[in-house]
UniProtKB/TrEMBL annotation:
It comes from Streptomyces fodineus. InterPro entries: Acyl_transf_WS/DGAT, O-acyltransferase_WSD1-like, O-acyltransferase_WSD1_C, O-acyltransferase_WSD1_N. The keyword Repeat does not apply. Belongs to the long-chain O-acyltransferase family. Pathway: Lipid metabolism; Glycerolipid metabolism; triacylglycerol biosynthesis. NCBIfam families: acyl_WS_DGAT (TIGR02946). Residues 6-249 form the O-acyltransferase WSD1-like N-terminal domain. This is Diacylglycerol O-acyltransferase. Signal peptide: none annotated. GO terms for biological process: biological process involved in interaction with host; glycerol metabolic process; response to hypoxia; response to nitric oxide; triglyceride biosynthetic process.
Length: 443
């Protein structure tokens, strides 16, 4: 039997999770339907194809070998049954409402940690599929590859697979220890130095920061989701008029939407500048080792208290330039890098505390998930919309994930349903902010 040790950040995600705070990510895809039975046909296809995708057979087990004591590894599940992972639901009139309830439920940790929920539309001309993947099994890029394996075949760029080393067993690891000790000591001391450097940078960057109460709450474990879609051409019009990157515009839209939403619900936006964590991938194609999540991040203050849409964009642009100049190894957003310098047993014992501390570092997650530009299908049915869904850390009320698919921007919103009962109003504020930016640019 072969196994694949979890990368440090994957291990952190695995142990941060609790029954009330699952750490899976998701994607809600909406397909056009040729007939009212299209959803049932899609569920059959997903179950049949899942059996042929090796990555979907992997479960996560604990590892107690000397060189990975307290860690975890991916390994094939000998009892894998795709019917335990693919579920067909009753027809629904609201895909997002059903997706929110399904996102509340943690994945079964004894099985490969993924699910596909097929939601037929009551209109008979559409159906949706909610894919759920645990962050320890797949980050956004790997989840995309796994999902592509059960959709209709497409020509996706191939990456050379990394060979999975056979598990050597306890006795083999013990025999190797004497020769490895000097290198392990040097590596540990080097890791401590890098960790202290990152930690000092974190401390400097977070000095004086306080959580934004409107976006933090006593965690309830409930979830709601919503989606917003608009043309990418609108983003390019703004960018070409006032400068900056596409990502700058998309982040500024979040800041403006928060301002409108807070003012409308009576919380007020005056003096509000929540800290947004913007994840940055550190994975190098073909050479990434270990596989799994390789993330850092930028931390910026969202200019919610700035009344001018273009002023908000300018502040975001300046903050992102400053972060990029410093690099992903500096600043409070680099907290994910510390995972690389914590021993496996440390993640196991400290995971719950780290999860509870997330609200001390940032108030809201704003992440981009890449998607292929080509059209995707399932059983010949066209994928028309796709909303990425990010996990919520304990005590955080809202997360925003953004994807661009076939010329359209999709905002996937996830919230603690008790803390944010009006997520639909925030979704509407996102749409209004896009229009406000266009108007401010005179286009």
């Amino acid at each position: 039997m072969t196994s694949d040790l979890l990368a440090p950040l994957d291990l952190a995600f695995w142990h941060i999770e609790s029954e009330r705070h699952p750490m899976h990510l998701g994607a809600l895809g909406v397909f056009g339907a040729h007939s009212p039975t299209a959803g049932a046909h899609a569920a059959d296809l997903l179950a049949a194809r899942a059996a042929a995708v090796p990555g979907l057979r992997l479960r996560i087990r604990d590892v107690w070998q000397p060189l990975a004591f307290g860690g975890a590894a991916r390994e094939p599940d000998p009892d894998f049954d795709p019917l335990n992972h693919v579920r067909l639901h009753a027809p629904t009139a609201d895909f997002h409402a059903d997706a929110g309830r399904l996102m509340e439920r943690p994945l079964e940790r004894g099985r490969p940690p993924w699910e596909a929920h097929v939601l037929p539309g009551e209109d008979g001309v559409s159906f949706a599929v909610l894919f759920k993947f645990h962050h320890a099994l797949a980050d956004g890029l790997r989840a995309l590859k796994l999902a592509a394996g059960v959709l209709d075949p497409v020509d996706l760029p191939e990456r050379a697979p990394r060979a999975i080393e056979p598990s050597r067993g306890l006795l083999s690891d013990v025999r190797r220890l004497p020769g490895l000790v000097p290198g392990l000591v040097r590596g540990a001391l080097s890791d401590v130095g890098r960790a202290l450097d990152i930690g000092a940078s974190l401390a400097r960057s977070t000095l004086g920061m306080r959580p934004t109460s409107a976006l933090t709450s006593a965690p309830s474990g409930t979830r709601s989701t919503a989606g917003v879609v608009f043309d990418i051409d609108d983003v390019h019009r703004v960018r070409k008029t006032v400068g900056g990157t596409v990502n700058d515009v998309l982040i500024a839209v979040v800041a403006g939407a928060l301002r409108r939403w807070l003012d409308e619900r009576g919380d007020g936006s005056g003096g509000v500048a929540p800290r947004a964590l913007i994840p940055v991938s550190r994975r190098r194609p073909r050479t990434a080792h270990p596989q799994g999540n390789r993330l850092s991040g930028y931390l910026i203050r969202l200019p919610v208290d700035e009344p001018d849409p273009l002023g908000r964009l300018d502040i975001v642009r300046t903050a992102m330039i400053r972060n990029k100049d410093a690099g992903p190894n500096r600043g409070a957003g680099a907290v994910a890098l510390l995972a690389d310098h914590v021993p496996a047993l440390g993640h196991r014992l400290g995971g719950p505390l780290v999860g509870q501390a997330a609200r001390l570092w940032f108030d809201i997650l704003v992440t981009s998930v890449p998607l292929p530009g080509l059209g995707l299908r399932l059983g010949g049915h066209e994928l028309r919309e796709v909303y990425p869904l990010a996990p919520l850390a304990p005590g955080q009320a809202l997360a925003v994930a953004i994807s661009t698919y076939r010329g359209r921007v999709h905002y996937g919103l996830v919230a603690d349903a008790e803390a944010v009962p009006d997520l639909d109003r925030f979704a509407y504020a996102v749409s209004v902010e896009v229009s406000a930016l266009l108007a401010a640019c005179g286009v």
